[in-house]
Protein 1
Amino acid sequence: MSKWNFETNRLCQLLGVKYPIIQAGMVWCSGWKLAKEVSEYGGLGTIGAGSMYPEILKEHLQKIQNVLPSNTPYAVNLPLLYPQIQEHIQLIIEHQVPIVITSAGNPKTWTQTLKSNGIKVLHVVSSVKFALKAEEARVDAVIAEGFEAGGHNGREELTTMVLVPAVAEACSIPVVAAGGIKDGKSMFAAMTLGADGVQIGSRFVCSLESSAHDTFKKAILEAPEDATSLTLKELTPVRLLKNAFFHQILQAYQNHASAEELRNLLGKGRSKKGMFEGNLEEGELEIGQVAGYLKDILPAKTILQHILDEYHAIYHQIKNS
């Protein structure tokens, strides 16, 4: 079995997809419209449930099931620390969601419940230690996410280039690389490091179908290469686009703020305010390091086509050299 041949690639076979590309379930950016486009093209589209109340998730599940061709796989991303997790799990089971990507919590908690209902489970990890725990919990695959990734991240600050080969060597289940992947070159590099496929987030934030606010998308396109930073490690580490709110965080650190003071500063609804409502000053703007290299907003299917064209060009160049 060769991972380079997508017909025999074990991640493609596990997920039932044509291409080993997962669109990340980013909060406030990954609704049913984006997931539909990616899944229809042959990747794995993902609904980001972390920013959804149960009734909103139900609406997105109903809509994607109404428009996707029968048996076309899609996923729901489910942060395990979500306060209404049991309601989300019940909705996922009731709607027979084929694949769930869990993160931010112990995979042992819900993996067997999901798998006993015929649902495949992938879990996001930030270290070899957590990858082995996820494999022990019997997840179907792990997503090794380097600290280049946007949004909530691991405390280890392991880069994708370091993390992916280490996890691939340690685990026997399929490994998906995430963090800093935006095109065919980075996809090829990740698979050369040992990954069976990739998960891509930030590039899809700047898609036409992304539910991110247009103002946020435009801010990403204007971002310099040093525009993001990982912060708030005392709470849950998160990579943010530097804005007025980010500088409030820096000032709080300079004033030796406690974790509780940082929590109060963050408050509630910051990410919605920034990414979904477009408040670039007061909002929390979660995006990966690749933000400084994104220069256009394209349809999701065009993004996928460009990634695959570049990937295959590199593959054939090396194969024939």
Protein 2
Amino acid sequence: MNETSIDPVLLAGNRRSAANYAARHFLWQLGDGVATITLNRPERKNPLTFETYAELRDLFGELKYADDVKAVVVTGAGGNFSSGGDVHEIIGPLLALAAPELLLFTRMTGDLVKAMRACPQPIVAAVDGVCAGAGAIIAMASDLRIGTPRSRTAFLFNRVGLAGCDMGACAILPRIIGQGRASELLYTGVPLDGEQGERWGWFNRLAAPDALAAAAQALARQLAEGPTFAHGITKAMLHQEWAMTIDQALEAEAQAQAICMLTQDFQRAHAAFVARRKPTFQGN
């Protein structure tokens, strides 16, 4: 095949639109490059079920192919983010399972975190009210968090006789708020309120409850309007460099930045700077 006849879309192969995605266990909305996932069981503070875990895992895994999604907002309906795993629909049934089946479940929940960290789009968690257990983990696995003064984040695993090392908490949480503070939350299960969460670096910022959705959407739109290919590289490097030495990180970043310098967005930014105007990025 002649090189000039290669269709880049054909090479990508798996690219597809997420506009018509039909969510089954949460609400889904896509507009202006921003996808919004809303956990929607407000009468019970938006608990998660086996099906919710699995669908979120699969959706975030698919987003790497969705070129019409530039950023993602995750939030909850009715003034709460999520109360975590449903006591009746998850905790109860787990008591009847043998070790191999329990391991299948815990690996599935970990796969949700893997999928969130591996999808190239920045994820903004908009956290109001209760954010507990697996709900706190979903917020933790997001790239950015906006809270409210009434947010209450709690890692409650020890309260039900389990270890705090759930869904990557012992690896990721210390990198966000520090080892000592993470240890306190994971050993005690005490809730972290909004203002303390902002001081500790858990929240990037706070908003009034009635302004939370708008603040999260504004941040997500800002990210969606940026150089989204480069954002994906930044996210990958932030994740991968946890396991690198400084020398390895410097080499990885040198290679990553060289790739970004080949993009048209880099050329657009230069042309806009010369013309003294704001660049319009297109993610390529």
Protein 3
Amino acid sequence: MSTFLTEKYGGLRPYTPGEQPRERKYVKLNTNESPFPPAPKAQELARDQAENLMLYPDPECRELTRLIEERERVREGQVLLTNGSDEALNFAFMAYCDVTAPAVFANITYGFYKVFADLNGVPYEEIPLREDFSLDVDAFCKAKGTLFIANPNAPTGIALTRAEMEKIISSDPARVVVVDEAYVDFGGESCIPLLDQYPNLLVVQTFSKSRSMAGARLGFAVGGEALIDDLKRLKYSTNPYNVNRMTLAAGIGSIISEEYFANNCKKIVENREWAAAELSKLGFSMTNSTANFLFARHDKIGGAELYEKLKGRGVLVRHFTQKEIEDYNRITVGSMEEMQTLIKEIKNILEELK
């Protein structure tokens, strides 16, 4: 840190991304990426735009926005495309949080929420998860401030039903509820059908997970026209051309490749259930994940030790040092071959402990 950094950022603790090591080839199950490539049409359309990179992209992202509006059955003016869902989330912290409206989120959830709060200089409250790691619906209903809820939650993978989410959203119409649905396509229920009933609802989704476009950085927010206008005000005050031409084209190719998308999601769910069953046979306990990852622990080996031993064998998973979850590891659901490798190496590690 230089002596020139403004004091307001001196205590900022940045978000820690998952490892992206290059010293060897790993079975990479640590960052919730898809094991499948983007849809062939997404790749084709992105390549076609390479020759036009001397031109700015459409700042309104009109074609892709229209396709998302049609897919999600929402009106014109209810969708905003962003540079990854993180940009949409940051806009929400900027727009709806201050000293009179603190940010509210779970104590165990997506780590960027705390960073966004600190970055934007807003107070926040963390609501403890229940003992089983489920979200405390009643506590969120009573909380004062702008709510940020990852559903399914990360890193636990546990989802609330749409009815439970509606209870929270309707509990106080005077505050905004931001629902982060990064993992909803693997078994969760989206809150988008509730939009017309609740002007205080903002839903954020991403192309990174289920649509295999983590490297493209594409997300979107869906909400009432007034909320989307708020976010547009911030977009056009910071980065009007926030989504590049190749990413926009890939997004279009992804949306029109619905069968490819659905098949990949189905395979990941099948691989998740297979891996969960195998881990259970080996003595692991897990949360009921409806995401593209598993959250698992074993009584005979600590989370950090298992993480290190797997890494030494060429398999990367994600370990968190937060005390409440330090015994767990988050395991991305990869291809069947990758999951079989994971199970084989865990069996070898557990055998060595005997």
Protein 4
Amino acid sequence: MTYRTLMVGLDASPTRFARTDLAIALARDFGAHLIGVAPTGLVDLPAAPEAAAMLGDDAATAWELLIEQAQSAAAEFHERCKAARLRSFEALVDRAPHAPSFITHAQCTDLLVMSQPDPAHSGHRQDRAVLEQVLMHSARPTLVVPYVQRGLLGMDRMLVGWNESREAVRAMTEALPLLRRAGEVSLSHWHHGGEAVRVRQHMHGLRQWLAFQGVDVEEQISPTTAPFGEAMLSAACDGTIDLIVVGAYGHPRWMEDLFGGTSRTLLDAMTVPVLMAH
């Protein structure tokens, strides 16, 4: 298993530069085809038909502006790929809402690259909603790049967050091409007490499976009183981790919204790229 086709989401946010450069570097490393998808989004019309009709030419002008912005993002992506001398790439303008566009096009790729929304960006709330929809509904894994990212993806040390969920298995499996390139991989589990022996037995089997896949891991089972997401971020910081691999939204979204969760914690406070799969 390797990555043959990568995709990067294009928009007008300032984070697009770092995410595009990282995606270009990954595509070059894997000899993969890179697709840049620039959705237009939709014009936000009033709910009342009478009010929408009153906009008239303003709505048409707004739609033309959205198309122009998407075309500009696609052209900018094309020029960055060309300047990097990437062998195989294409830029697509999609006249569709952002989340459905990314979800649909990602079906034809191995990995989607997106960014953590920047709280300082005026469209932060919308960017966050789009990312969450993609993580929940995409058939492919998503590599989320921190908005503070300035360099390319490091390959030295990687952390796989393990919680015995289907989502964790999928994320770990989808990350194999990256894990095989890592210098060190930590298979890590945090618990609030009373389950270390059972989890250790299971993780021994996972370690063997990963070894068969060409990935040598170090098992880490640690008690913690902190929420799991905070424990994971702390370990990543202490261990100078380059990449976190973790399942996304292992609990129902309404529980994450009400009580928080690992996925929301990582999306709010990540400092290194995170590969997530639901």
